[in-house]
Amino acid sequence: MRRFYQVLPLCFLLSCATYYQMNLVFNQEFESGDMEAAEKTLEANPKAASSKEKFLYFLNRGTIAAMLNKPEESNIYFEKAFIYGEDYRTNYFNEAGAYVINPTVIEYKGEDHEHLLLLYYKALNYIKLGDRESALVECRRLNNRLLKLNDKYKSDSKYKRDAFIHNLMGLIYDADRDYNNAFIAYRNSYNIYKEDYIRMFGVQPPSQLKQDLMRTAYLMGFQTELAQYEREFQTRYEPDNQEGGDLIFLWNNGLGPVKDEFSINFTVVHGEAGMITFVNEERGYNFSFPIEQKEDDEEGADLSDLEFYRVAIPKYNERPPIFKQGTLTVDGRTYSLEAAEDINKIAFYSLDQRMGLELSKSLLRLALKKLAEKELREESEGWGAVLGAFNAYTEKADTRNWQTIPHTIYYTRAHLPVGVSQATLNVNSGREIAQSHEFTFHIQNGQTIFHSFYSLESVPQRRLNQY
User: Fold this and answer.
1) How far is residue 65's CA from residue 60's CA, in Å, rounded to a whole number?
2) Is 242 exposed, middle or buried (0-12, 13-18, 19+ CB in 10 A)?
3) pTM of the complete model
4) pLDDT by residue (tens digit) across 52-82?
5) Where are the alpha helices (DSSP H) in 321-404?
6) pLDDT digits over 36-51, tens only?
7) What is d(CA 161, CA 147) in angstroms, rounded to the nearest whole number?
8) 8 A C-beta contact, residue 404 and residue 319
9) Do 31 and 458 form a contact (C-beta atoms < 8 A)?
10) Residues contacting residue 142 through CB under 8 Å, at least 6 positions apart
């Protein structure tokens, strides 16, 4: 027994570590932009490809390969992540284990936005490879995923439609000169920005999307729709007949949020008919559970020792990007990069929407643990104490998430003359910190090319007030 208590502190430290902390070396290499080192760290842990976190391993391998300009390799890993999402089946034995120990004993199945964004990376990789047909296949997969997401939730308050993904589909169809499907995708995107994104995430429909919507309506001869959008946008569409092509420039800015955990203390209120209620008056939480009561047990299931308890709940920590705005200058003309997808806000909103479910699961887990402890104490006070200590040390939230995705995706469409063009990306923090990056593009008449750029710089929590 003494030996058990000697190892408990070590178990406690391991138990408290979040997913980010357990992968600290990789995360620090990635955040510092040392992609070669980050890739070697992942390669040194091949067992991760068959672990409970295999989905995240594939996503990280795909992300690193994309940033190292290895689109074929990147898509091999993103395809594995996609197939994992398609084939995922609930393991009810492990699900039961999650209620006895904690939710990290089950495989990580991924957040809704993570399953969509991996196809965003895949589509861009195919475009980089010049394989437009495969990029369109990813568009159809995206559409299927969006339909499943829409069917998954009944409430309109849930994140179940993605405006940026529809916009991306429109951009790819548009580049393929499939203007009818491009118009449909742009229209869906605009409606979702207007109906969902403003309300949920404070993200306005990009002005570039409005231009693309009117342009494709014009190209398809949809005069009624064009007139409708001209009135709504209070502008008149003017066709641009210049020779040259278009550049779709995507700026993946910052780093998405990291899951952590926090604790909530609950008071147990004993009700009638074996009901117990967990109450936190400060937060206004109130959850009731039926507890079976034994007739020959004088104390029954009154759980008199269940008075004040702590439960671990997942939360997100934002990593605010240093750069707040950016512009792209080509041949003397400057284009503003507009926010199209705020992944940080989507993550926070989605978790907040299911916080009631997360709390219910955590409290049910706590109730089951305490009942098991009480049963064991009746047979052996010592082993009951051991189980109580084990339960306390293993109590933790699921802190796994895709931590190498951007904080926010910006984009613009820039017109390029035929031939070679020099472009400059200027990003700034709104204060003294700014960067410039030079690019060379070669474009043919009527061609649309895509380019994505990553800014990983993010403000650490401890330095947030300095910016």
Assistant:
1) 8
2) exposed
3) 0.86
4) 999 999 999 999 999 999 999 999 999 999 9
5) 343-353, 355-379, 381-394
6) 999 999 999 999 999 9
7) 9
8) no
9) yes
10) 116, 119, 120, 123, 165, 168, 169
